[in-house]
Amino acid sequence: MPRPEHRADTIRTILDRELNAELVEVVDDSARHAGHRGSEGGAGHFRVLVVSARFEGLSRVAAQRLVYQALAPLMVDDIHAVEMRTLTPEQWRQLNG
Question: Tell me, what's the pLDDT at 36?
Answer without folding.
Answer: 53
